[in-house]
User: Which sequence fits this backbone?
């Protein structure tokens, strides 16, 4: 036995300097890619905040007013007011409605595709869903502005068809493909041994889904929902066209609203660079960033809480 | 043999009757028409090298073979006198047969929920009804003392041997009439294996056990009868004493159990 030389030992002795260096370089590159994600996020945050910072310390600006006032009059001649509360509420209401529609449909479709669907139908459906996610947002906005708004006016008798309901439905349609494809991946990643174990214990298909697969794929499914939320919160063009663009706290689904994103898109071009208005719009961007961060962190804590239980 | 259920040792009750079972995966036949019976309250060991159809045979019993789209089954498998392929409620069939897989597969649930899984699936949801079942099964699987203080922690976080005993507890949780163990000990240490073997000896009083194993000595220690499968055919099925006596009918069997080939 001792006469047989170990092949591993030989290979190691013959490893050239170049190979060792190459591996080191590769390792550094991979580390850099990992860290760069944090770096980019930090850099974006820094530059947005840098543009916004001067206004924070300027006279006549109050952070309280910025966050909690509903009065948004950035171009008023004698009394300029920058209150974004109505915009925040606009973003949250449209997003909430979108998720209310998109999460059940998206997760339902993901479960259907992954567990109940025949392979051939699945392939067709996946292609269609990918097609859905390839539609540019301005086209969605166009659909909202023309088709959906007419439908809403006809169905509800509302004076205008561009409102929370319209924006919510459009955003839901845009988020569903994201939720479906990520959710399906998460379910497919559950090992088959779990399915076999569940089935051998006499679980029906539905029992298998909600007793085994949903708990097992929980993190991935949450990621799917979060990406959907991210899509909805960050969407600009479609909501700009579909929600009516009125600065106003909505009292019902049929009221028009304006979102944080749409506000930035619509006004940044007209705000003189370096003006207070310009800087406040960047501050709005920071606020948007923080909202997304809070949503993600909350979801993360929720998942950790469940896991510990 | 008489039709009536006489309990005389001469005519044991047939818990499982398999006749001319054939199984093909995508046209390639892997089980070539095997017939055998499993008697109530016996331990039947199934031995044989890899690719001899042991696991596939088990999957035909509880019809989990249905999930393999390319599989086609013919012949007849009766469990408790009923043809499994004519059964309408296949979930009820699976509750009558406990199945333990080779690798421990704790479901990603708490220990308690792992064992309560099957009762819950069949509609038992009251805590007062579930708790005694969970405790009884964990005791039967010789795991209770180790986990009784942490039933809420994840089943997948247990060690391999503990997880395998959890799988056995889970398989017992729907009070099956038949327990199938598919090479249950390949991932666990010898000490734990011996503990589980003791458990199986006790369980024999209540249920019928099919033990698929690669360890011919394990088959010898535990089983009443032994079946030797080779490349999808039964070479021999007889009392374990006979199989291991060196006087079995087939030369192949003698060679396999004495370690000459396989």
Assistant:
């Amino acid at each position: 036995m001792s006469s047989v030389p170990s092949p591993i030992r030989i290979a190691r002795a013959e490893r050239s300097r170049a190979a060792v260096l190459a591996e080191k370089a590769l390792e550094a590159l991979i580390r850099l890619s990992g860290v760069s994600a944090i770096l980019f996020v930090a850099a974006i945050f820094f530059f947005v905040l840098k543009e916004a910072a001067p206004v924070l310390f300027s006279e006549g600006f109050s952070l309280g007013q910025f966050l909690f006032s509903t009065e948004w009059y950035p171009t008023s001649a004698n009394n300029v007011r920058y209150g974004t509360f109505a915009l925040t509420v606009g973003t949250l209401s449209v997003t909430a409605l979108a998720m209310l529609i998109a999460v059940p449909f998206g997760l339902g479709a993901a479960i259907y595709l992954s567990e109940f669907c025949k392979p051939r139908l699945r392939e067709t459906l996946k292609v269609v869903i990918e097609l859905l996610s390839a539609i540019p947002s301005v086209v969605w906005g166009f659909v909202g502005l023309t088709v959906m708004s007419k439908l809403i006016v006809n169905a509800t008798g509302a004076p205008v068809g561009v409102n929370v309901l319209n924006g919510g439905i459009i955003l839901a349609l845009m988020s569903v493909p994201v939720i479906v494809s990520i959710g399906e991946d998460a379910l497919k990643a559950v090992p088959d041994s779990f399915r076999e174990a569940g089935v051998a214990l006499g679980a029906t298909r539905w029992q298998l889904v909600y007793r085994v697969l949903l708990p097992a794929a929980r993190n991935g499914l949450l990621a799917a929902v979060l990406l959907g939320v991210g899509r909805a919160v960050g969407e600009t063009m479609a909501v700009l066209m579909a929600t009516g663009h009125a600065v106003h706290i909505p009292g019902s689904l049929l009221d028009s609203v304006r979102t944080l994103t749409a506000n930035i898109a619509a006004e940044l071009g007209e705000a003189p660079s370096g003006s207070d208005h310009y800087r406040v719009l960047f501050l709005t961007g920071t606020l948007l960033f923080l909202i997304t961060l809070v949503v993600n962190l909350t979801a993360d804590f929720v998942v950790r809480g469940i896991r510990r239980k | 043999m008489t039709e009536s259920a006489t309990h005389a040792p001469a005519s044991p009750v047939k818990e499982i009757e398999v006749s001319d079972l054939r199984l093909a995966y995508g046209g390639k036949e892997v089980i070539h028409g095997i017939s055998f019976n499993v008697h109530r309250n016996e331990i039947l060991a199934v031995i044989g090298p890899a690719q001899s159809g042991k696991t596939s045979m088990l999957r035909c019993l509880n019809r989990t073979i249905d999930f393999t789209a390319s599989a086609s089954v013919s012949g007849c498998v009766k469990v408790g006198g009923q043809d499994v392929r004519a059964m309408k409620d296949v979930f009820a069939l699976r509750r009558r047969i406990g199945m333990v897989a080779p690798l421990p597969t704790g479901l990603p649930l708490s220990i308690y929920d792992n064992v309560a899984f099957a009762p819950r699936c069949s509609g038992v949801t009251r805590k007062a009804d579930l708790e005694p079942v969970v405790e009884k099964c964990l005791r039967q699987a010789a795991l209770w003392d180790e986990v009784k203080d942490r039933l809420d922690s994840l089943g997948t976080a247990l060690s391999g041997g503990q997880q395998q005993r959890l799988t056995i507890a889970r398989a017992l949780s729907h009070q099956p009439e038949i327990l199938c163990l598919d090479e249950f000990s390949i991932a666990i240490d010898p000490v734990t294996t011996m503990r589980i073997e003791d458990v199986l000896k006790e369980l024999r009083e209540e249920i019928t056990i099919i033990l698929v194993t690669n360890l011919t000595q394990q088959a010898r220690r535990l089983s009443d009868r032994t079946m030797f499968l080779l490349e999808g055919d039964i070479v021999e099925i007889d009392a374990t004493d006979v199989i291991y006596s060196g006087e079995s009918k087939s030369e192949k069997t003698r060679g396999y159990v004495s370690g000459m080939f396989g």
